[in-house]
Amino acid sequence: MSKWMRAWSTETVGPHNLKIAERRVPEVGDGEILVRTTAVSLNYRDKLVLETGMGLDLTFPFVPASDMSGMVEAVGKNVRRFKVGERVISTFAPGWLDGLRPGNGRTPSYVTLGGVLPGVMSEYVAFPEDWFVAAPISLDAAEASTLPCAGLTAWFALIEKGHLRAGDRVVVQGTGGVALFGLQIAKASGAEVIVTSGSEEKLERALALGAGHGINRLTEDWVERVYALTDDHGADHIFEIAGGTGLGQSLKAVAADGRISVIGVLEGFEISGPVAPLLLKSPVLQGISVGHRRALEDLVGAIDRAGLKPVIDKRYKFGEFREALAHLDRGPFGKVVIEF
């Protein structure tokens, strides 16, 4: 193994400062494993961190991205969970192993890879073994890399927190990575899935993935269409991807005692909506900020059992990181992945 590796990094906030640099392969410390990166999947959050910093205390030179799959190349002393040669995926929020999120009401924790902690857009990483879980045996490296953030967010919303039941009506907004995981997980759980999108072509692809209905939000009132499709019952669960004032539409469309998972911030970091349906229908309004390691392990097991295959819109090469980031602005159908 070479003593040198390549990594993407930036010295300041702003994607135009991204460059590839050579640095030494890190040595493993006590309780750490050295992982050779095989794939990194991108989230829109990665782009926001690069462009704005998101108010995070970044360390420069900053290596971006949080979601990876890889192969264990070396283990440090006292490592018990992994062996050399095993395939692993990262956890988005290291330290959140199970149960309640770290932090408190005044200062909720947001210590994640590719943020306060180093990112994974490098050929090798050396992190504590607790920051990884075993990769699914049924997925290739690119597919496995999509699970730590997008896959787990959907799983946490629907299964861990949402207690989804067969027969539930689930509305999924859009056709990005989290949305399509929501579609697939809901369908595998026996739910009826309704997808909204502004693209007829993407709606057709969502129907082919198993959605029961597609609604073009640009040509029809999606709330009224949900009522029509559910005999006025409404949606038992809504993936609120847009945020902003769009929450008001979700409050109208949700069923009595239903659930809205606020996931995306595409329309801004402020949300608003009418109070009447919130009071009269008593829905659960839950914010989802990915999830803990135990839930990721549950997701891995479920994927291997169900044979679920993540949707990858395009696979890029290591040197095409800028092009892959630009792809996020075009609204990918599923995930954008960089293979090493």
UniProtKB/TrEMBL annotation:
**A Pfam family this chain is assigned to:** ADH_N
Record domain Enoyl reductase (ER): where: 14-338
- What Gene3D superfamilies is this protein classified in? Medium-chain alcohol dehydrogenases, catalytic domain, NAD(P)-binding Rossmann-like Domain
| CDD domains in the record | MDR7
**Stretches assigned to coiled coil:** none
Under which name does UniProt file this protein?
Answer: NAD(P)-dependent alcohol dehydrogenase
Name the source organism: Sinorhizobium numidicum
